Amino acid sequence: MDSSIRVTLDDMGACVIDLNNSESVTQVTHDRVTRARINFIEYNLSEGSKLMAQHVLDSKGLLGNPSSFHHTGIRYLRLHCKKALVKILQPWLHDQRMSPDYRLEGLFDRLGVRTNYGAEGTRWKRDTYEPDQDSERLADLREGDIVLSGFLNCNVADSESAEQRVLVVPGSWKDYKLGDPAEVPEDFVEDYDMRRWELSVPPGSMLVMRHGLAYRELKTTRSRTCPDGPDYRLYLSYRLTLDTECLYEQQMEWMEKQAVPRIASGALPQMYGNKPRWADMHEWTVQMLRKECYEVRANGLAAPDKVMKSLAEYGLGMFPEYTQEDKDVMTPTRINAT
Fold first, then answer.
1. Got the DSSP string for 205-218?
2. What CATH number corresponds to the domain at position 120?
C-alpha cells in the first residue's frame, strides 16, 4: 500500500483510499446500494417510483430507517471498507510507534442519497463525539482512542458528476479538543478559508479523515433527472482503540434487533428535521412507507416516528442474522492479527 497515503493521513489528517475503483467494481458497489434501497423492508416502493430519490425530508439526504443500516448489501460494503482500512493502518501504527495491540471497531453511520435540490455546500464543520447528548450518559472515549470518519463514493464510474469533492484544512484536527462544537467558530474561518485543500473522491474510493478535521462537503450537481440517479455515499466511522469492548454497549443488541443505532457522533438518526412541512410529510409517508411503519396524527396527517423502531418491533420481517464476519466489522478486532 502506498506509504504516501499514510503520511497524508498523519500530516493532512485525511486520505483517499482506492478500493479498486475499476468500472466493474464501482458498478457492483452502485448496484448493491440501489438494490438495497428498493428492498428496504419498511418501504413500499417500486423501482420506477417518483419518490425514490427522496428518502428523508431534508436537503442532506441522510437516511434514518433501520433497513438502511442493516441491509446485507450495506453490511458487505462496510466489510469491504474495513478490510481496506486495515491494510493502511497496519503499517501506519508501526510508523507512529503505536502499540501493536490496537484494535479497529466499526461504528454505525448513515447512507446518503442526495440530489442538488436545496443542498448547498456546507460551512466548515468537524465530526465530533457528544458524550452527554440527549441528557443520556454515553460511553467515554478511552485515552488513546482515535476516531476516523469519512465515506465511500457509491456512484457509477463515468457517470454524470460521479466524483465527490470535499474541502479540508490540513492539520486542523490538531486544533480540536473533545467537547468542541461541530461547527467551526468564526475565529477560525478566515484562516481555514486560506489553508483549504480540495480532495476528490472517485467512485469506488473511500475518504478517511481524522476526528476533528475541519471540512466542507461541496454541493453535488446531480439532479433528480440524472440518468444515473442521485448522488450516493455510505458514511463510515471507526474507532482505533486498545479496548476490547464496543464503544456502545448496545451495539450487539442493535444488530440482533436490526434497530436504528447511535452513530459515531452519539446521535440517534432521525427521519426528518425539527421543522417539517407536515402536508409534504403526509404525502411522502403514505406513498413511501408500509402502513405498519407510521401513524396518522390527530390532524389527519401521517408521519413516521422521528426515530423509527427496530425491524424486530415492526414485525414485517428482518434481514438475515449478522454473521460472525459481519459482527467483527462492528466490534474491536486486532489490526495486527497474530
1. EEEEEETT--EEEP
2. 2.60.120.620
